[in-house]
Amino acid sequence: GESVGLHLPTLSVQEGDNSIINCAYSNSASDYFIWYKQESGKGPQFIIDIRSNMDKRQGQRVTVLLNKTVKHLSLQIAATQPGDSAVYFCAENMGGNEKLTFGTGTRLTIIP
Amino acid sequence: DADVTQTPRNRITKTGKRIMLECSQTKGHDRMYWYRQDPGLGLQLIYYSFDVKDINKGEISDGYSVSRQAQAKFSLSLESAIPNQTALYFCATSDWPRERTDTQYFGPGTRLTVL
């Protein structure tokens, strides 16, 4: 079946360095993608989104890259801070279906 | 997100009991969702509602029911709780298609333990 997955379940990064979190998707009809951040004890929080007609979108300290050729999505966090420690999920909207499908998440740990 | 609230935040109950989890939102969104989160499994959709009269089953609706009492309120019930329903439960809202995105906004979650 179709799925949204992540390459790595955990990622440790030195404070101040850049982080890259990856996500693979398998449905070429997917046209909308979202990255969420979930801190311990809280609900997922929207970070950034991107539509399939774009290959890059930037926010504050975050950039999402979409490579439709290899069905790959990444989230780049610049100059990571302790507050960036969380689980990050990608979510996929499959071909106009308004339901989102979520990946299992990557836990990002910032090393002081 | 303070615009989406869930009660209770934590609940411990026994097998066979009926439990209701409540969700309220002040965002004015038509669409509301209930998800379950288990460790390592991400978010699974239980039920969703596009408006007060439109309720749909998600991926894992067995053992659950919902009620959309008003645009702002969406309740999830476990008819007869069982231990494998122990999980984190999240409510979410979205303003699609007005926002022209499918972004969902989540509540803080309810941690449910079934003994």
The number of helical runs of chain B is: 0
Relative helix content of chain B: under 10%
Q: Strand content of the residues of chain A, in percent?
A: over 45%
Rg over alpha carbons of chain A:
13 Å
Number of strands of chain B: 11
Low-confidence stretches of chain A: none
Residue stretches of chain B low in confidence (pLDDT < 50, at least 5 long) are none
Helical coverage of chain A, percent range:
under 10%
Keywords:
heterodimer, A: 112 residues, mainly beta, 6-stranded mixed sheet, 5-stranded antiparallel sheet, 56% strand, globular, B: 115 residues, 7-stranded mixed sheet, 4-stranded antiparallel sheet, 0% helix
Task: Give a short synopsis of this structure.
Chain A is mostly beta strands and 112 residues long.
Protein model, in words:
The complex is a heterodimer of chains A (112) and B (115). Chain A has 112 residues and is mainly beta. Chain A has strands spanning 4-5, 10-14, 19-25, 30-38, 45-51, 56-58, 62-67, 72-77, 86-94, 100-102, 106-111. In chain A, the strands form two sheets. In chain A, strands 2, 4, 5, 9, 10 and 11 form a six-stranded mixed sheet that branches. In chain A, a hairpin with a 3-residue loop joins strand 6 and strand 7 (62-67). The model of chain A has no long low-confidence stretch (mean pLDDT 87). Chain B has 115 residues and is mostly beta strands. Chain B contains no helices and eleven strands. Chain B is globular. The A-B interface holds A 9, 32, 34, 36, 41-46, 49, 89, 93, 98-100, 102-105 and B 1, 4, 31, 40-43, 45, 48, 58, 90, 92, 94, 96, 101-109.
